[in-house]
Amino acid sequence: MLCCWVEDPYSEAFKLHLPRIADYLWVAEDGMKMQGYNGSQSWDTAFAVQAIISTVLAEESDAGRVLAGSVILCFQVLEDCPGDLNFWFRHVLKGAWPFSTADLGWPISDCTAEGLKV
């Protein structure tokens, strides 16, 4: 967001960042707060699903496994960043799992491994 603002504070690229500010920046009773991630949804879900599958609950219903599998797929990154990945020092994203949601877009090898297990 900052890079887009420096390049052109009136650009469409900068304006597209504005709706997501509250996900990462907010004012609390003791001052300004910031977070680098928007959660740990992918990580948490992968372990929860693996825990359920390792119990007798998995034998009782296939519906739960199907639902869990579809939920973990929602977190998978489905496309790479536009443009030249090498120019921006980015790795291939497509097919990987981030720590939280696909919106985060940073592939994490551990999260990808856990997502594939499910």
From TrEMBL:
GO cellular component: lipid droplet
Superkingdom of the organism of origin: Eukaryota
GO biological process assignments: triterpenoid biosynthetic process
Gene Ontology molecular function: oxidosqualene cyclase activity
Gene3D superfamilies, A to Z: 1.50.10.20
PANTHER family xref list: LANOSTEROL SYNTHASE (PTHR11764:SF20), TERPENE CYCLASE/MUTASE FAMILY MEMBER (PTHR11764)
Similarity comment: Belongs to the terpene cyclase/mutase family.
Full protein name: Uncharacterized protein
Organism this protein belongs to: Rubroshorea leprosula
